[in-house]
Amino acid sequence: MPSRRGVGSVQVMIDLAQEHGLSITQCLQQTGISPAQLADPTTQVEASQELQVIDNLVRALPDVKGLGLQAGMRYQLSTLGIWGFAIISSATVRAAIDVALRFADLSLVLAKYSLHENEDSAEFHIDIAHIPAHLRQFVLERQFLITLLLIRSMMSEQIIRPRDIYLTVDTLPFTQMPAIIQESRLHLGASANRLVFDRAVLDRATPQANAATAQFCVRQCEELLDQRKQQSGFAGQVRALLLAHIGQMPSLQAAAQHFNMSPRTFRRRLDDEQASFRALLEETRAGVAMELLATAQLSVESVAERMGYAETASFIHAFKRWTGSTPGKYRAAQARLSS
Fold this sequence. Notes:
52% of the residues lie in helices and 9% in strands. By secondary structure, the protein is α+β, with helices and mostly antiparallel strands. It has 3 domains: 1-64, no CATH class; 68-209, no CATH class; 231-338, Orthogonal Bundle (Arc Repressor Mutant, subunit A), CATH 1.10.10.60. Strands 3-4-7-5-6 form a 5-stranded mixed β-sheet. A two-stranded antiparallel ribbon has the order 1-2. It comes from Atopomonas hussainii.
């Protein structure tokens, strides 16, 4: 289970809890997370802290059924960062699963994933045995919905459905069953959590596959993972921070706070490496935007949303400033080059 992760996942759950009448103080009890840290999008938390938030919700809301499902429905692809983009741009379902497993340490998942191939089937296992027993229903419900989100985002309108779904929980209290699993055989109270597909699905091409985008995203994942492991090069660490928050880039002040520095010291550290925060910010935004636009299935509006822009016009203006071209013209030019 990946340990460090952005605070965005915690914020999703707190937003849900507040709708059920809980206060931020109740949600953060015994987590070591302060309201100020929660408000800082660059804050990194431990998996154990996120589990404590879940514990607080489960204990405070024992009569709310499907709480984990409600949480899972709130996640979007942009919440998953570069890890999610790397998955959906992979050439095949098998390649997407390989990327998901390879870079799981960059994700917000609490479960452990694994793939098991049989003669005529492929089983995608979701292991929650390491999760405290009283939290397993919530974690599984949430993880199940995030898995469906990834499948739906990866395959677009070409839905792939599990042949069988085995879940260890006794109930799955959806208010409305997702279309993606309506034709699947659902087995509750199973001994293990697994989604069973026809093995041929693994070699199925994905609608949003793009070699350049996939290569770019995997390279960014590799660099981000290396930064987390080595923590070398301050400019690299800042760039890793930005990549981890694609949909909500931090301000200079927020980034400085993340590294426990004053803005002045933060700027000086970057100056020492002939870098600037603005340049890193623009470089990261432009690079991710250009690679996402190279994927023909993504509209300009979709890229703008995934990049965290509330208005498409603002994204178009920024992209033209970065590249001298509009997103539409850039995408058309890339399409001509690849044809």
